[in-house]
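User: Hi! I'm working on a homework problem where we have to compare a predicted structure to a textbook description. Could you give me the structure for the chain below?
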Amino acid sequence: MLAKFAVTNYRGFANRIEWDLTKPANYEFNTYAIKDGVIKNGIIYGPNGSGKTNFSLALFDIENHLSQKWKKFDYYTNFIYGGQKEGLVKFEYTFLFGDKTVEYVYSKNAVGMLMTESLVVDGKVVFERKDKFFCIDKLQFPMGSNVEKNLGDNANNVSIVNFLLTSYPLNANHYLLELNGFVNSMLWFRNLDIREFIGLETNTTNLDEYIINNNLLADFADFLYKVSGQRFQFVVHNSTDKQILCKIGDNEVLFHLIASTGTHSLQLLYFWMKRMNKASFVFIDEFDAFYHFRLAFEVCKQLFNMNCQIFASSHNTYLMTNDLLRPDCNFILNNNKIKCLADCTDKELRFGHNIEKIYRAGAFYDE
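Assistant: Happy to help. Predicted structure tokens:
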């Protein structure tokens, strides 16, 4: 699981901003949102321009050098904080894999080249590369002096993690394989003016074809009814159909012609939910941009019932309720800080409190 993340000098974040998921409060309700002492589910709120999207993209920077899964082609545009063009962007990850704590820290320059990199497992340095300096635990990874020197120089900026993964035989539960598996199973997506995603898959997919080819029409119709109350009667003539048809009276109409923007968004969500059984960590940026507030609540109930870590960003404070999550799982991102509601007040928050009302009244501070 992802336990902590911090980034410095990235896009709108001039200073270091840290997100610590290892300090859940002592609430006895909605315990499904906590797993092994780590916050598993949550929603990030914040004013326009506070950096919610940029923070989520920073979380997925690790995909850009450890994974071959789908990437955002414009990701390194405006990569570094505008006031620090000559500096480095620093990323810090802490993962928990069973009883192992893996800390992976690296930095990149303004065009995304890997400049420094270190890995610490259970407090012990596995390797570190910085400013031509390189050291590695040779008991774990024996290597000749020439190889060690080349890794220290590292003129082609290859990731040391990737080098070790491909150059040494590792046992099935090795921390490097666990790290690699986690990163390759991360997923970020959104559905605004355009649909974009990072991770988990290598190609784009036609959603209609996916649903038809996997015999999911009835399941998709059931999903739409459960979360939105909409009833669709889908028909298929053969498994090679490329577009979903709806039966209306005696006629058949293409689904995409009659579906609303919000329903199209639900189709994309449905597709990814079918893949999330393979996911380790999911972030959905402004997931409810086209949803009615009650629909967003029903979608969250389904999402947070899944096994992987799932977080989303939203402006919809209707979701800020103890009927869905808990104060320590609702986060405010503002002024280069991200804090849970439980840490934004001196008051004791209980299940019966209307935390949305408290938030709207300005009782939570973000300093």
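For your comparison, note the following. The longest strand covers residues 89-97. The chain is about 25% helix and 25% strand. Good luck with the assignment!
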